[in-house]
């Protein structure tokens, strides 16, 4: 015996048992069809929605002179009809239906009539039909699924997408289509709980369904929590009967929501993006991502479960933003439990792929939690845990400088006038495919350069980046060198996601040392280094044409005929070097050489003022321009014992004036008993001054100036302030020409 035969025997046995049960219960509804020769008749057997197992009797009757010669079930639905009393040549035949649900009442009975008192002649035929219509939930279309279909409620989720909405299928009517068109009507009530849609998502516009349109698939569009009924009705039998089938649904709202557009709010605008592209948020940040949980109606049977379908190892879920009360997944709330409205998700490790974390909020209205598809509904969100790191600038600009390309952390203004500083900023996003999704929620920030005009590239308004190959990119420029040396130097670049700082990097800004694109048009090294020392009248003098680094012209170019410049220090290009002044001073370089040179020359200004104070002057005499320097005939004299210049009462210089001190040599000072003010060993060094210690140059004038610098500073004292390129902060620390 085959398995099919075994099942069929069990099935027939069950039908017999049900027949006996129905008979004993005496719950029989009777329907009658009056037969006429050579005709077809139909009669609707109504099975009430919610009635459950039902029994009906169909009486086939004739009127004189006709008797029913014989009848049989030509076809029926699910073998639920049986011949209860069908004697030959009788005016009545009885058929019974047992344990049928709506849509299972179809039967077609065929037979013949005979005249009373006559056993010969033609026997006219008849056909009697009990029609049925059928609407099923897609996926529950087998015969066994009809049991209690009109009372069992399918869950329909308000958050279901188009492809996830519950579907119903209207079948071809089982009817005698020679008698009627078979046109059916369908409606969904209450209309504010759910409505029917076509499969393309547009509203089902009418109620009538032609036979040619079957099988017809419709969608259920839930509108609010509640219970609804779908009713399909066939053509009336003209006696108040109409075949019908019912489906019951229950709308619930199981909603798991998250901010997907980065506006800081959870709103309807986020719904369409919850799964694709989903929510993107940062790893290891204090800005936890809120997720909203909704279950309506709240007084529900069954259980509600929040779980991570995959990717759960990348996140933690908390009750509060402050990371208190961890929720370990899966988390189930049974009937009567309070479901939190909001939970908070923390990213603990970056995603490898976009949307590789799925959270699912699932409701199962079966108290046993068997998870049957028709008794469950769910809502899902996809998350991507994003890691972002600055890759330009990056690293340590002091100990690991990078001058260009990826990782650049030292940036120098161009030599153009005005100079332009260009910063090509980069941030790497993991996973790389997330870059395009998060770019509008990101921004770069760079340190200000006071006095230089900052601008973002047209593609990067406000520091918003573009995305390419998993890298966020933005370009910032600063135009015009600043006025202050302090505007250069160490800065910080910062990277923000949703206004939360995700990373920062140090970098340094430099001026082109040997260019001359500052506001004064002098070499940049001179413009910025000069501002570091409090010495007035330091003047750039170009190239000396030799090896002269600087001079005080009030000493080097002193003359009896011209007013000497006793206030200015003239600096030449040759100052930017590395050397030991006069071979004996401390070795200095670059910016320190510049400062040391200025201090050296300032000492010469001090010497000039002190030496000038040793001489008398009437304003137009040999001493009018002070102590003479670098002159073969000097004016370093005071009057002798006779109280006159030269020999008293003698015109020593032959200019026609006795004992005068004319402005230009030869003059009378220095003759006879006049006393020299010079040191016995060093001309131009006043004898009143002690010799410098050490005095290790060719002349104490320079020895004292060398000592003044050496006592005031050391090599690299000014290195922290050197923002020239090359310079002592550029590239190799404390290397002046790197």
Characterization of the model:
β21 (315-318) and β22 form a beta hairpin. The two termini are 98 Å apart. This protein has 738 residues and is mainly beta. The radius of gyration is 54 Å and the shape is rod-shaped. 10% of the residues lie in helices and 33% in strands. The strands form 9 sheets. Strands 10, 12, 14, 16, 17, 19, 21, 22 and 24 form a 9-stranded mixed β-sheet that branches. Strands 18, 20, 23, 25, 26, 28, 30, 31 and 32 form a 9-stranded mixed β-sheet that branches. It is built from 6 helices and 42 strands.
Throw out a few tags for this protein.
738 residues, mainly beta, nine-stranded mixed beta sheet, 6 helices, rod-shaped
Report a brief summary of the structure.
By secondary structure, this protein is mostly beta strands. It is built from six helices and 42 strands.
């Amino acid at each position: 015996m085959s398995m099919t035969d075994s099942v069929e025997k069990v099935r027939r046995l069950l039908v017999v048992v049900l027949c006996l049960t129905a008979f004993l219960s005496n719950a029989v509804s009777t329907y009658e069809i009056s037969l006429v020769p050579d005709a077809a008749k139909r009669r609707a057997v109504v099975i009430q929605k919610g009635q459950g197992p039902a029994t009906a009797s169909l009486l086939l009757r004739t009127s004189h002179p006709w008797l029913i010669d014989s009848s049989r079930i030509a076809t029926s639905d699910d073998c639920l009809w049986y011949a209860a009393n069908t004697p030959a040549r009788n005016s009545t035949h009885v058929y019974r239906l047992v344990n049928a649900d709506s849509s299972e009442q179809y039967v077609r009975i065929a037979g013949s009539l005979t005249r009373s008192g006559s056993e010969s002649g033609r026997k006219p035929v008849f056909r009697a039909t009990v029609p049925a219509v059928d609407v099923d939930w897609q996926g529950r279309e087998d015969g066994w699924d009809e049991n209690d279909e009109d009372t069992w409620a399918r869950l329909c989720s308000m958050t279901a997408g188009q492809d996830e909405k519950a579907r119903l299928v209207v079948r071809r009517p089982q009817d005698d289509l020679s008698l009627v068109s078979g046109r059916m009507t369908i409606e969904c009530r209450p209309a504010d709980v759910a409505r029917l849609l076509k499969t393309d998502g547009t509203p089902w516009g009418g109620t009538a369904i032609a036979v040619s349109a079957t099988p017809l698939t419709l969608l259920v569009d839930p509108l609010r929590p509640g219970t609804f009924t779908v009713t399909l009705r066939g053509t009336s039998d003209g006696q108040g009967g109409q075949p019908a089938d019912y489906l019951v649904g229950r709308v619930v709202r199981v909603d798991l929501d998250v901010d997907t557009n980065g506006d800081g709010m959870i709103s309807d605008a986020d719904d369409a993006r919850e799964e694709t592209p989903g929510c993107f948020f940062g790893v290891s940040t204090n800005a936890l991502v809120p997720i909203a949980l909704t279950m309506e109606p709240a007084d529900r049977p069954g259980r509600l479960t929040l779980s991570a379908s995959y990717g759960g190892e990348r996140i933690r879920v908390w009750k509060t933003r402050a990371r208190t009360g961890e929720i370990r997944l899966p988390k189930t709330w049974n009937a009567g439990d309070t479901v939190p409205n909001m939970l908070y998700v923390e990213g603990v490790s970056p995603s490898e792929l976009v949307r590789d974390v799925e959270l699912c909020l699932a409701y199962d209205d079966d108290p046993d939690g068997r998870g049957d598809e028709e008794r469950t509904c769910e809502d899902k969100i996809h998350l991507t845990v994003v890691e972002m790191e600055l890759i330009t600038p990056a690293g340590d600009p002091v100990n690991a400088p990078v001058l260009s390309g990826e990782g650049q952390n030292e940036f120098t203004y161009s030599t153009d006038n005005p100079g332009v500083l260009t910063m090509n900023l980069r941030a790497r996003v993991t996973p790389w495919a997330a870059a395009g999704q998060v770019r509008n929620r990101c921004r770069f920030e760079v340190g200000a350069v006071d006095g230089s005009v900052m601008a973002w590239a047209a593609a990067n308004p406000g520091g918003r980046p573009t995305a390419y190959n998993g890298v966020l990119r933005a370009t910032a420029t600063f135009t015009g060198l600043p006025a202050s040396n302090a505007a250069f130097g160490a800065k910080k670049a910062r990277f923000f996601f949703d206004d939360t700082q995700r990373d920062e990097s140090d970098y340094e800004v430099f001026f082109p040392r040997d260019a001359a694109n500052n506001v004064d048009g002098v070499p940049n090294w001179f413009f910025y280094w000069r501002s570091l020392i409090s010495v007035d009248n330091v003047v750039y003098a170009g190239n000396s044409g030799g090896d002269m680094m600087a001079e005080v012209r009030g000493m080097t170019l002193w003359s009896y005929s011209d007013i000497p410049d006793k206030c200015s220090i003239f600096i030449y290009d040759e100052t930017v070097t590395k050397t030991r002044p006069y071979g004996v001073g401390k070795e200095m370089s670059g910016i320190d050489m510049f400062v040391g040179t200025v201090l050296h020359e300032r000492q010469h200004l001090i010497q000039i003022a002190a030496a000038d104070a040793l001489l008398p002057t009437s304003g137009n005499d040999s001493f009018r321009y002070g102590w003479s320097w670098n002159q073969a005939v000097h004016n370093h004299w005071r009057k002798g014992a006779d109280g006159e210049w030269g020999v008293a009462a003698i015109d020593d210089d032959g200019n026609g004036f006795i004992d005068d001190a004319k402005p230009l040599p030869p003059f009378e000072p220095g003759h006879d008993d006049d006393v020299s003010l010079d040191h016995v060993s060093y001309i131009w060094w006043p004898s009143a001054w002690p010799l410098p210690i050490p005095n290790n140059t060719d002349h104490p004038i320079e020895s004292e100036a060398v000592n003044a610098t050496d006592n005031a500073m050391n090599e690299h004292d000014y290195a922290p302030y050197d923002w020239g390129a090359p310079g002592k902060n550029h590239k190799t620390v404390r290397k002046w020409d790197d």
